[in-house]
Kynureninase (Janthinobacterium agaricidamnosum), 832 residues
Amino acid sequence: MISRHDCSARDLDDPLAPLRQQFDLPQGVIYLDGNSLGARPKAALARAQHVITAEWGTDLIRSWNTAGWFDLPKRLGDRLAPLLGAQTGEVVITDTTSVNLFKALAAALQMQASDPAQAARRVIVSERSNFPTDLYMAQGLAAWLDRGYQLRLVDSPDELGQAIDADCAVAMLTHVNYRTGYQHDMAAISSHCHAQGALALWDLAHSAGAVPLDLNGAGADLAVGCTYKYLNGGPGSPAFIWVPAKHQARFRQPLSGWWGHATPFAMDPGFAPADGIARALCGTQPIVSLALVECGLDIFAQTSMEAIRRKSLALTDVFIALVEQRCASHPLGLVTPREHARRGSQVSFTHPHGYAVMQALIARGVIGDYREPAIMRFGFTPLYTSFADVWDAVEILRDILDTQSYDIAAKRDAVT
Amino acid sequence: MISRHDCSARDLDDPLAPLRQQFDLPQGVIYLDGNSLGARPKAALARAQHVITAEWGTDLIRSWNTAGWFDLPKRLGDRLAPLLGAQTGEVVITDTTSVNLFKALAAALQMQASDPAQAARRVIVSERSNFPTDLYMAQGLAAWLDRGYQLRLVDSPDELGQAIDADCAVAMLTHVNYRTGYQHDMAAISSHCHAQGALALWDLAHSAGAVPLDLNGAGADLAVGCTYKYLNGGPGSPAFIWVPAKHQARFRQPLSGWWGHATPFAMDPGFAPADGIARALCGTQPIVSLALVECGLDIFAQTSMEAIRRKSLALTDVFIALVEQRCASHPLGLVTPREHARRGSQVSFTHPHGYAVMQALIARGVIGDYREPAIMRFGFTPLYTSFADVWDAVEILRDILDTQSYDIAAKRDAVT
């Protein structure tokens, strides 16, 4: 049995514990929703003040040069790259995950269509349980291309091997499932894709900053992801897209805006894509939100994804163990894999009154979230979550369940 | 002849003069580049602090509900709508102008393709002098659709009448030209489009907040635009898209992300577009940059576009007159129409050493910008530009030209 004292002892031994001081976390809250919106780096306020007063207010239009606004997507992409197993010049931070997925999927289909040996492929493989917007974007693209592309959705990761076949143009998968926390084997699936002649496109929304990634080493073809979850970039901060050096020359995407032009200030009426990763850009980016992404990356630069992963697995192991020890009499079902290699940085449990229980937890200061059907989702962010937090969260959960202190008539909010 | 005293007297009579106090403008600068990046509303700093500390930092994920983040694109769109001659529920602030143009153009082509009487049309009419990214996005869309769509570019507004013909699916025009300041007759061109069976899609990047607009009255079909120029939303602040009530039911666009879904939190794997303007949304928006847009709109709410237009025309009239009076011996060529109805809120002059002269102006604190070929561009923003500013700017221009105090070997910066 694990005690609170054990948890406190682990905190004393935790090399990441000091990083918590770099985040602004409200008093009385145990925040287990960093997989939805990362907490605020304290530095973000001063950074915003600087961008707003000095760069926008004082230097005004000159800041496109003097503050490097125009290069910000590339400069921040280069800072993010090491967390992804990507090289300098392979990542930009720009637009939204949905828009970047559209670019990447369109480019992947085009790469296949322009290869006579692969041009007949018309299937996009994904999972029915993928984050819905990924499926929506694929549906939108397929319908507009009107060339017979169809989505083949599997119901279990086990079916991917068979589904990714000689008809498959692209496997479009989210590396860590938003609901279950299941983590795919990126290298094995990418390798299977290539053996079948397909390309592997990965959504890293729940992976970047959460688990070690080695995009190049895994042989992935394209990737997109989000900066406002584990990367702590701020609400809705711009997303990223990765195009490896091996594919950049043939990467073409339909959102061909001026930031992706070879000579954006020549004002040529004809589009010519920039060399390198810049061709994944489109239009002018929201500079204040974009600049704040750096505050999160600055904290990652003080540790390593390996250290983060060690603590993440320890936190989720302890959480699972404590829930199973202390809430054993309640109908909780573990959804997240116990196997480390298959687990992201979240833990999900079902409960028949999952929504109501989560509302009660939030009212008591333990912030997780709820996803249909019946899933309580708890995200663990090693940069600012302690082992004592885990103990205290489970203790509050136990108390709520033991005393049935939740309103089974609770209705879902519009959002979250 | 106009004197500085005349200018000061006009400032004393100017009902908009007090609004300048709501902007943070650096000492010693006459800012005539609000057509590229609007100045900073003083309120933007406190608003950013609130969003970052209270909404992100303290309320965290709950702010999607409590701070109304999810509804922000619609709520701000409704606040912008009156400046455009649009109705409540017809505008959202989201994504970039380029991305919104892609959505709008795709939707317009689809509307035509689904009408048997118009389905054969394959021509998109625009101007060669349009802002290049608009042409790039149209090229990208046309190439990816691969259904024979072609861009027909005219070299002069006079040619539009003939170019918009029975083959034309959509006329995609920027209402006020970014380089010349030429303003199209939106009602006449939209009407001509309809008479020919075409749709009229307008880019309002240099119109919104600059000139009175009556989208519904003019019979326009779709519009997009930018909030970081005359609307003072901040660097790269999210753009807008207008879909009139009359077209919403058949408006479909390929960037079908979860924010445009009928039930975004049901997590349904199939896309179904939301009713109304929400179907123009796609992915999660950059909340800090988006929230700052409201600070600019708050200032517009204290006056009217008619009052702004009166002062804009007075400022540009005085600027043209003063340049022609005081710099008459220099080879300056007025590019912007003298006719009020054809003029936006900027004035452009050519000069053989336009780039060098503009650099000398900027070094003396008069910030305009330069556009190829040989064009010096001066934007006039009635919310914070005074008649005395106009006098002083022309006086500095005169001095630079009279004394040839510019470096004809000056090389262009990477950006601006």
Observations:
- Chain A has 14 helices and 15 strands.
